[in-house]
Design brief:
Helices cover 41% and strands 15% of the residues. The protein is of the alpha+beta class. Strand 17, helix 21 and strand 18 form a beta-alpha-beta unit. Helix 13 packs parallel to helix 18 (572-579).
Length: 956
């Protein structure tokens, strides 16, 4: 490296061999259907991808990132075209702006980036794939921070700028604390509206753009300082709207997410956060007063009880997950550019924290690509990879376009970058380390420190080649101070394993080298790293886990070539078991157990002390909320920005638990923290598997002592009525000589919704009882009672008439009730549910008998032959019959030591890993349905991502 440019060395590639020539390519057809109704959302045939890329990754890249109209010659059809479009643009810009010593270095840079993208070592954020190398404005940033002043012009500018950002598929955040409160006067003498009133207009605008846009829902963050006089109104805003949702839902309105009546509810398009200070948190700790100050002159408007206000914040978060907290003094203590201005806001997911009217482009490394088979970490390759990625990210700012000139000016002057990673949870599990453990936190902290230390060291080198960022001169001393804080924190890592020790040692070296170079040259970037949700790009890289998150669950959905999907045990599990020293036979047995049960508890041969290695975000053994907070605290000192993550809490958590989490977040030095309590929101669709609860008491132990009665929240089911015109079928039957008719009506989108029974003349007692029974069952079905619940209760019920029937599938019935619900089960339940209840058609029973006979014959012939082929044949026969009966077939396969177990696909209602997890644990997950394809999304940081089509609810 010299003043004339960077000298680039090869790491991943071989001289004279292009990366494309080292992989096997194949052509695929990408046909995306809505799993609920089978309609085709997208179709492009003959696309080209490496054989190693999963079907899901290829589908998402094809639908999301290929440019050009489908069906035209301009449409991209190969991953080579996509990578070339982006990488060649970066190379040309790097040459144009003097980053490389000579064309040879530029060539190596291009090939190294190509290799890393091709092999899923890292990925740029989505806007890069959308825009770079196209005729459209080349916006590369996913995260934006806006500014609003106390004037109508500024407020209207905020609406406009936010709309432009949403239109481009990105998200923004804003702090409204400069707007005077509703307790202050206007210059005309009237009373000001206050920031909460202006939030309504912005929320309506975001909702309109969300509804009309084709990319994703609007993502936004609204922040208010804790000393603002309107803070209490702001805090309870969304909680009060949740009360409205409940009332309207109980009155029969459609309040599902995306429902026709949900638009009447306000403030639903933003995440809300309170910006708290150390002064406020100390007042909470000491049960002291806290002053709320006017925006015009800083005068005290009101003095409040700090503990009571903190309780109000926790209560609102307990009720509806908003607001989160942002710790203002901690944020600004790590600010590299305080001479320019304070950090007042963040992007929607809270990972980007910097100057007002600025933006950040993101890129994330796939940590599993650096884990060797022996469990060691490829430190040198990781360092070099960070160098390549951070260089490319900085180059992008040179040619990037921005939604507003103010954002463009600030971003070009401070060059904020957000390198991060994905697959941390998978890396820890594969290494045999529990997510919630000192060893897991030490390894995570060391990797994070190495990443940011290397990024800033390369940034200092870039400053020596193409100059420090424009705002560096006035912020040199505070920037150096923050670099020293990072380096000191790195020295304090308590590595407990040889792998973490080696990484930590290299991290210390990178920080010291960066400080030495930076002292002379300055730094090219005011910010280097964040931990983003990595939603869509995590799927693109075939990552098992997103960002800093643990695994969602041990089983997940996998798409198959030619369509369909199957349930598998995560591939990280067998690798983790081998790293823990289990022999191959035990690995197979444990993986089979997980396939059957969805968890490791009581797995054959698995030591109880190893259970925690397989703890996940949800399921039988879920990580405790404080475990998530401690992991965030372990990596926060090594991140320029913050961490996109929501701390999930069980439904049984109390308001005091929320207070403790928020208070510990401050004590542990986090910059931002948000919680989510299971089932606290009602304005979103939940699985029918959600257990009904008549009421949940909010009363806490402390409240009980004081004999204070807290509010009781009642959860009521909503009746889904059948349309006036609905499909139905009538079956005549005879049970023990008694004849009758069964009429069953369905919803248009499938599912039993109404039953009528006729067994005697009108006016008789039996006819009246049957009519009443029919109405009761029908209303129960319409309120969400699963049909299988009725089947389990009424089958095998014995009373006269009973005996022979005229139904070939049900030859004997213990009663009329027994027959009716067996018939309904055969007509409306999938095979897997009926098999659990022991209800089969005549063909299915015949297939079972044949299979048993063949199994006995095969055993007699070989004495040692496996019954697996016979079982597979049974499954094939059953699948063929199910297909004829319009039910979805299941997929099974024998466990092997080379890969994960494949187990029976669940019922047709399952369409994502989240829904699969719901089926396994028997509990609904509070995740929205994807606006694009209708499947249930899964958490990704503080956002959600759709595994089916890659859509996200966030900004990365």
């Amino acid at each position: 490296m010299g003043a004339t440019g960077l000298k680039i060395e090869r790491v991943w590639t071989t001289e004279g061999v292009h990366p494309y020539d080292e992989v096997a390519w194949e052509r695929r057809d990408v046909v995306m259907t809505n799993w609920r109704d089978g309609s085709i959302n997208f179709e492009q045939r003959g696309v080209e991808f490496p054989e190693s890329w999963s079907i899901n990754a290829a589908n998402i890249v094809t639908t999301k990132y290929f440019r050009g109209a489908v069906g035209t010659p301009e449409r991209e059809w190969s991953l080579k075209q996509l990578i070339d479009r982006v990488v060649k643009t970066y190379r040309k810009a790097g040459e144009d702006y003097g980053y490389f010593t000579n064309p040879g270095d530029a060539e190596v840079f291009e090939q190294e980036l190509t290799y890393m993208l091709l092999h899923q070592v890292f990925s740029f954020n989505s806007p890069v794939w959308f825009n770079v190398g196209t005729p459209s404005p080349q916006q590369v940033s996913a995260c934006f921070i806006l500014a609003v002043d106390d004037s109508m012009d500024s407020i209207l500018d905020w609406y406009k700028e936010e709309g432009l950002i949403f239109k481009g598929g990105s998200g923004s955040g804003v702090n409204l604390s400069r707007i005077r409160s509703s307790k202050e006067l206007l210059s005309s003498g009237g009373t000001a509206s206050g920031p909460v009133s202006f939030m309504r207009g912005a929320d309506a605008s975001a909702g309109t753009i969300k509804s009309g846009g084709a990319t994703r829902r609007a993502a936004k963050m609204v922040i208010l300082d804790v000393d603002h006089p309107d803070i209490e109104e702001f805090v309870v805003t969304k909680a009060r709207e949740e009360d409205k949702i409940r009332a309207l839902r109980d009155a029969g309105f459609d309040m599902d997410l995306g429902g026709s009546d949900i638009v009447s509810v306000q403030y639903q398009n933003a995440n809300n956060s309170v910006r708290v200070t150390d002064q406020f948190m100390r007042a909470v700790e000491e049960n002291g007063p806290f002053d709320l100050r006017g925006r015009l002159d800083g005068a005290v408007i009101e003095s409040v009880d700090a503990s009571k206000l903190f309780r109000t914040i926790a209560q609102a978060a307990w009720e509806c997950a908003d607001p989160g907290l942002q710790y203002d003094d901690t944020i600004n203590d790590w600010h590299t550019s305080p001479e320019t201005g304070r950090i007042t806001a963040s992007n929607p997911c809270s990972e980007y924290l910097h100057l007002d009217n600025s933006s950040c482009n993101l890129a994330s490394l796939n940590l599993m690509k650096f884990l060797r088979a022996d469990g060691s970490f490829e430190v040198e390759k990781f360092v070099k990879s960070v160098e390549f990625v951070i260089t490319a990210m900085d180059i992008s700012i040179c040619f990037a376009d921005f939604p507003t000139e103010k954002i463009g000016e600030t971003t070009r002057a401070y060059r904020q970058l957000g390198i991060g990673y994905a697959n941390l949870g998978a890396l820890l599990m594969a290494s045999g380390l529990p997510y919630d453990s000192d060893g897991g936190r030490a390894l995570a902290g060391a990797i994070t420190s190495l990443m940011t230390g290397t990024a800033y060291r390369r940034s200092a080198e870039l400053a020596g080649v193409v100059g420090a960022y424009d705002g560096y001169a006035r912020n040199a001393e505070p920037h150096k101070r923050v670099m020293r804080k990072h380096a000191t924190a790195s020295d304090d890592i308590k590595a407990s394993s040889p792998v973490a020790t080696a990484i930590s040692r290299e991290a210390t070296k990178q920080w010291q080298l960066g400080l030495k170079i930076g002292e002379k040259s300055g730094w090219r970037n005011a910010q280097a790293s964040v931990l983003a949700p990595t939603g869509t790009i995590g799927l693109m890289m075939d990552c098992d886990t997103t960002g800093v998150e643990p695994d969602l669950a041990l089983v997940k959905f996998k798409k198959l070539v030619g369509g369909g999907s199957m349930q598998i045990v995560n591939q990280t599990v067998p690798r983790a078991l081998r790293s823990l020293g289990y022999p191959e036979e035990q690995v197979e047995a444990i993986v089979e157990h997980i396939a059957d049960h969805g968890h490791v508890v009581d797995a054959p041969g698995l030591k109880p002390e190893h259970y925690s290695v397989f703890d996940c975000a949800m399921g039988e053994r879920s990580i405790a909320p404080m475990g998530h907070v401690r992991m965030m605290a372990a990596v926060q000192p090594f991140i320029s920005g913050a961490i996109s993550k929501t701390v999930n809490m069980p439904e049984s958590a109390t308001v005091e638990d929320v207070e403790k989490i928020y208070f510990e977040g401050w004590k542990l030095g986090l910059k931002a923290l948000a919680i989510y309590r299971d089932n606290c929101k009602v304005g979103q669709p939940l699985s029918a598997a959600k257990p009904a609860k008549s009421s949940v008491s909010v009363e806490t132990p402390a409240a009980a002592v004081e004999k204070v009665v807290e509010k009781v929240v009642e959860y009521r089911p909503v009746r889904k009525r059948l349309p006036k015109k609905r499909p139905s079928e009538t079956v005549s039957f005879s049970v023990g000589g008694a004849e009758g008719y069964l009429t069953a009506s369905s919803y248009p989108d499938d599912g039993l919704g109404e039953v009528f029974l006729k067994m005697s003349k009108q006016g008789s007692t039996l006819a009246g009882v049957m009519d009443a029974f029919s109405v009761a069952i029908s209303i129960g079905l319409q309120y969400g009672v699963p049909l299988e619940t009725y089947v389990a209760k009424f089958t095998n019920m014995r009373f006269e008439p009973a005996g022979m029937t005229d139904d070939p599938d049900i030859r004997m019935a213990a009663s009329v009730m027994d027959y009716i619900f067996r018939r309904l089960a055969l007509d409306f339940l999938p095979y897997e549910r009926r098999a659990e209840l022991g209800i089969f058609t005549a063909k299915e029973r015949a297939a079972q008998i044949r299979a048993e006979a063949e199994a006995e014959a095969a055993f007699d012939h070989t004495q040692m032959a496996s019954s697996a082929p016979i079982e597979a044949k049974v499954v094939e026969e059953k699948a063929a019959e199910d297909k004829a009966e319009k039910t979805e077939p299941s997929t099974t396969a024998k466990t092997t030591s080379d890969g994960p177990v494949q187990i029976a696909a669940p019922s047709p209602r399952v369409g994502s890993s989240t829904e699969l997890l719901e089926a396994v644990i028997g509990k609904a997950a509070d995740a929205p349905l994807c606006f694009t394809c209708g499947t249930k999304m899964r958490p990704a940081g503080s956002c959600y991502v759709c595994e089916g089509c890659g859509s996200t609810s966030g900004c990365s």
